[in-house]
Amino acid sequence: MSTPAPHSPADAAPDCPPAATAPRAAADRPAGLGAAVWAALGIVYVVWGSTYLAIRVVVETMPPLLSGALRFGAATLLLGAGLAVRKGWRALRVTRRQFGSAFLVGVLLLVGGNGMVVLAERTVPSGLAALMVASVPLWVVLLRRAFGARTGGATLAGVLLGLAGLVVLTAPGLTGEVGLSGLLLVVGAAVVWALGSVLAGRLPMPQDPFVASVYEMLAGSLGALALSFARGEPDGFDPGAVSAASWSGLVYLVLFGSIVAFTSYAWLLQRAPLPLVATYAYVNPVVAVFLGWLFLSEALTWPILVGGAIVVGGVFLVARNER
Asked: For residues 126 and 308, is the Cβ–Cβ distance under 8 A?
């Protein structure tokens, strides 16, 4: 995403499919919102919030980067085939510059951002990872400021508040409850995702957000596969040793995390007020924490609860002032 407020998946979480060039919804819409809008918003809330749980389940018995390569490779084929059936193969045609831009953004978002989250979730609880990833809009503000964008005092206050919450969230790593290296991976993922988001708004991307996502996910798949081979993951990989739960989690990430939720989000951008759509950035971490506690018995410690609340509060201030 190209703005500090969470206006597209890239501003919210490294696990969400990129939509940096998605058409922006008008800030003002008629007051009456249909049931379809609330249903689509509910899908974005729950599905994107649940992807952290799914990742945690997948990496229990599957190599992390290889799982990412499989996920985005399958999503590329499904989304590309769907576009070809609906609009014809010509819809996938882009210029070399657009392809190169989408590929670069895909590497940053999905190999750097999502890849580091997947690696981190081998040791970091899914809910904690989601709360730390919620800081992406804060890093977007700082990076845009580094590129010369003006930032208001209220926005900077939100950024500082959110970063203070991020410091609180690292407390489990400092006390030894969670591996500090895993937490730092998540912070790095948020920064890299934010960089990809900022560049996506400055590079010549494909006009159709779905087409852009096809090439971004293609880059994510190839990049993750290359790193997976570099780490030697395929050498000892035995598909038969992967649990049914991990396979199910991977299918869920492909179909729901990368296809259904993103389609719902792109549809919402055309039919719902942008401030309403942006609320998913505050809801997703809450959903992730609840699901991690419910299904994986992840502890809800005071640093997680307090730090998470501070981060979400900071993101709320940034979104409200950068609307």
From this structure: no
